[in-house]
Design brief:
The structure is a single chain. By secondary structure, this protein is an all-alpha fold. The N and C termini lie far apart (about 35 Å). It folds into two domains: about 35 residues; about 35 residues. The longest helix has 30 residues. It contains three helices and no strands.
Length: about 70
Amino acid sequence: MYSQETLEYYKRMTNSERLAVTLKMIDEQFPYLQKGPPEVVARRFELLRRENDLRNKAMLECIARSKEPS
């Protein structure tokens, strides 16, 4: 969990600054996803796909609920 100071710092950032931080983190960490035996690498990417699918499903459900007539 981030400290309150870190959260406030991120809130004050512009969208382009947050994107730059995100892209930097991806550049730094992506090579580590590909290290290790092929089975381990495949499991890592499968986990990422599952997590992304669940997150996307949850977002779509929320969008669908927000569009329902009251």
